[in-house]
Design a protein that fits this description.
By secondary structure, the protein is of the alpha+beta class.
């Protein structure tokens, strides 16, 4: 069973590498230890994929039939689309971070009291510090929290 699992992981990692090389997706890897030197602790088996084409991603996100009218874009741009846009905002921030030369990392941790998993959307290494970035889409306007 382990050989099958290793083969499957190897195939998935190869596919991810090919998609990343084609520049159609951005890959954010989970960091096992959010300290300086994030590459050292990246977990190749846990990752998030972001689409490099935001327009295509938006269409895929809201496509509920064969043909999606431009009404969705009009509502989206006029802030009249009542949906959680967190995925879209995260995708845009991933593109901005990558375009500015950053590697993409995220971190998850378990709150022992509540038994709930929490996630920090992005981690940036700056000299000997790690800067967490959290994307929020609720409320009157979206925001990016950086500490």
């Amino acid at each position: 069973m382990k050989n099958i699992s290793r083969q499957r992981n190897s195939t998935v990692l190869e596919l991810i590498s090919e998609m990343e090389s084609s520049r159609t997706v951005l890959v954010s890897y989970k960091s096992d230890d959010p300290n300086a030197g994030l590459t050292r602790t990246k977990d190749l088996e846990n990752f998030k994929l972001f689409v490099c084409d935001t327009g295509l991603f938006t269409t895929m996100l809201f496509m509920d039939k064969d043909f999606t009218e431009n009404v969705i874009y009009e509502k989206l741009l006029s802030d009249k689309l009542s949906v959680n846009l967190g995925y879209l905002y995260e995708n845009i921030v991933a593109q901005i971070l990558k375009a500015n030369g950053n590697s993409l990392f995220y971190y998850t941790f378990l709150d022992e009291k509540s038994r709930h998993n929490f996630e920090i959307d992005f981690l940036l290494a700056r000299k000997n510090k790690v800067c967490p970035i959290e994307i929020k889409s609720s409320g009157p306007a979206a925001c990016i929290l950086v500490s």
